Amino acid sequence: MSDYPEPLIPPGGTAPVPRRIRATLDGRGVLDTTDAIYLWEFPPYPQYYVPVADVAAGVLTDTGETKTFEHGVARVHTAGTGRAWVYDDGVAKDRVRFQWDALDSWFEEDEEVFVHPRNPYSRVDAIKSTRRFRVSVDGAVLADSDATVIVFETGLPPRYYFPRTAVHFEHLTPTDTMTACPYKGRTSAYWSVATVPDVAWSYDFPTATLLPIAGHVAFFNENVDITVDGVPQERPITPFSNPTARPTDGKVS
Questions:
Q1: Cβ atoms of 167 and 160 closer than 8 Å
Q2: Which residues of 207-236 are buried (b: 16+ CB within 10 A; e: fewer)?
Q3: Which of 43, 55, 162, 205 has its CA 20 to 30 A from that of 190?
Q4: Distances (CA, A) of 127 to 85, 124, 153, 196, 250
Q5: CA distance 235 to 242
Q6: Of 149, 146, 145, nearest in space to 127 by CA
Q7: pTM
Q8: Which residues contact 170 (CB under 8 A, 6 or more apart)?
Q9: What is the pLDDT of residues 98-138, one digit of tens each?
Q10: Are 119 and 46 in contact (CB under 8 A)?
């Protein structure tokens, strides 16, 4: 069973970006546009395609190479610490798609965005719950509370965020892992148990819309045993199910 639904827009589909998009490199603004489009290269999230005219001079350097994608042929450029692809025809005509990490920071209006653009057709809601949630692994109780915050995110199973006072940290070992999410921000901590690496995480300073989860601890449902009001829950199957081969885009939810 998978909690990933079919995408609303398939790869190759586009939509206008109604937000101002900016990016910085080496401390200066190098991209500023209100005319970007989303283009879905891979579900469930898109990338920004920005008018070349809205990119500062000197940022793009043509390598003379080309690369063929399903949505067109692009001229390969270097940009910052990575690459960018400029299109002369097709749905992305006169637009450039930057490798995300080629530039230092990205912003939607005045709010920083991490990892990749936010999908305009996704929702992420943080809702308080008085249902009793209990998390365990190999018989050891990791968390138990009736004051959790549930994060509902399109395409992912619900994530249960526990107050730190409800977490049994004696069973958890801190790790050096840090990830980021376009909807929640950058993580502040990760923990492992003996049988599952990086099984839990926390955001001390989440984005404004996810403030209810600040300082709380969540667990990968895929790798722990959870009961809700005493009823055992089935472990969902997602790309995060294998703790040693999780997606590398940093999106932990």
A1: no
A2: beebeebbebbbbbbbbbbbeeeeeebebb
A3: 43
A4: 40, 10, 11, 27, 23
A5: 12
A6: 149
A7: 0.84
A8: none
A9: 999 999 999 999 999 999 999 999 899 999 999 999 999 99
A10: yes
Mean pLDDT for the chain overall? 92
Per-domain residue ranges of the chain: 14-113, 124-232
- Domain 124-232 fold is 2.170.150
User: Would you place residue 220 in the very low, low, confident or very high pLDDT band (cuts 50, 70, 90)?
Assistant: very high
Angstrom CA distances, 253 to 14, 24, 47, 220, stand at 25, 26, 19, 9
Long-range contact set of residues 13-18: C-beta below 8 Å, sequence gap at least 24: 13/39, 13/40, 14/38, 14/39, 14/40, 14/49, 14/91, 15/46, 15/120, 17/48, 17/117, 17/120
Identify whether the C-beta of residue 15 lies closer than 8 Å to the C-beta of residue 67.
no
CATH architecture of the domain with range 14-113? Beta Complex (2.170)
| One-letter amino acid for residue 236 of the chain | P
Q: CB within 8 A of 230, min separation 6: which ones?
A: 132
